[in-house]
Design a protein that fits this description.
Elements: E1 10-15, E2 18-23, H1 34-49, E3 55-60, H2 71-79, H3 86-99, H4 101-106, E4 111-115, E5 119-120, H5 122-129, E6 132-136, E7 140-142, H6 156-164, H7 166-175, E8 179-180, H8 181-187, E9 192-194, H9 199-211, H10 215-229, H11 234-249, H12 252-263
Parallel strand pairs: 2-3, 3-4, 4-6, 5-7, 6-9
Antiparallel strand pairs: 1-2, 7-8
Helix pairs in contact: 5-6, 6-7, 10-11
């Protein structure tokens, strides 16, 4: 089933409980337009609350993932001589970041980035905000910000530091060099590296597997992991795990899975 995103810059469809969002500006390597960001924010918000959707895949059209911000558009706006008031620009940027990258990271459903090609700047940040990343063996990642005089946005400094450590994150930001798929896999930035024509299918198959799994458990599992990811102290994490573990033990999913284990059959999860 296809969705009306409100813009040609973003495509959306649902199959097997998986929402696939496609950044659709291939001529600009899927650079983020305002219309794309608005559509992405709205659909992610709706997907978070939609019980029919169990997992989200975000990808890019035309062989790229996302080149980040629309630098050509920025240059045109700069040349127009009519800059946006700084307070308005900051408020809009904060809202966009929280409703896109922030939501991909925090929503109580698994999110997967399918990376067929370049993931740069804010595009890399979006990919790192997801729970898992499937990457083409010909693709690459780069922070890119230093090359255009930016400090970085969409949570990239937060996600990258947590994933690879402070020293490597600083190197990747300061130098803005390319990281190929093999190095991304070694660093833990990619979970799976496959041929380019298999990226989306592999990501969607993984998402469908997750969508058919124990959704209540995944919700709490992700909250536990995010609490640890953001530096929660040990006792706080232990207490949160205990609360969620006992809650999951009362669900139909757990009870059927325990019974299925004894009966040597595959459990059927219903998300309740």
């Amino acid at each position: 089933m296809s969705y009306d995103t409100g813009t040609e810059d973003l495509l959306a469809s649902v199959e097997d409980g998986v929402l696939t969002l496609t950044l659709n500006r291939p001529a600009a390597r899927n650079a983020l337009s305002r219309a794309m960001l608005d559509g992405l924010a709205r659909l992610l918000g709706e997907a978070e609350a939609d019980p029919a959707i169990g997992a989200i895949v975000i990808t890019g059209a035309g062989g790229a993932f996302c080149a980040g911000g629309d630098v050509k558009g920025m240059a045109a706006r700069n040349a127009s001589g009519e800059p946006e008031p700084i307070d308005v620009a900051i408020a809009r940027q904060r809202r966009n970041q929280r409703e896109t990258a922030g939501r991909l990271h925090a929503m109580p459903k698994p999110t997967i980035a399918a990376i067929p090609g370049a993931a740069a700047g804010a595009g890399l940040s979006m990919a790192l905000a997801c729970d898992l990343r499937v990457m083409a063996d010909t693709a690459f990642m780069t922070t890119a910000f230093a090359k255009v005089g930016f400090s970085g946005d969409y949570g990239g400094t937060y996600f990258l530091t947590a994933l690879v450590g402070a020293a490597k994150a600083r190197e990747m930001y300061f130098l803005s060099d390319r990281v190929d798929a093999a190095e991304a896999l070694r660093l833990g930035l990619a979970n799976l590296v496959v041929p380019p024509d298999a990226v989306l299918a592999e990501a969607q198959a993984l998402a469908a597997r997750l969508a058919a799994g124990p959704r209540v458990a995944y919700r709490y599992m992700k909250e536990n992991l995010n609490r640890a990811f953001s530096g929660g102290d040990m006792d706080d994490c232990l207490d949160l795990e205990a609360t969620h573990h006992v809650h999951c033990g009362l669900t139909e999913d757990h009870k059927d899975a325990a019974k299925a284990f004894v009966e040597k059959r595959v459990p059927v999860f219903r998300g309740r």
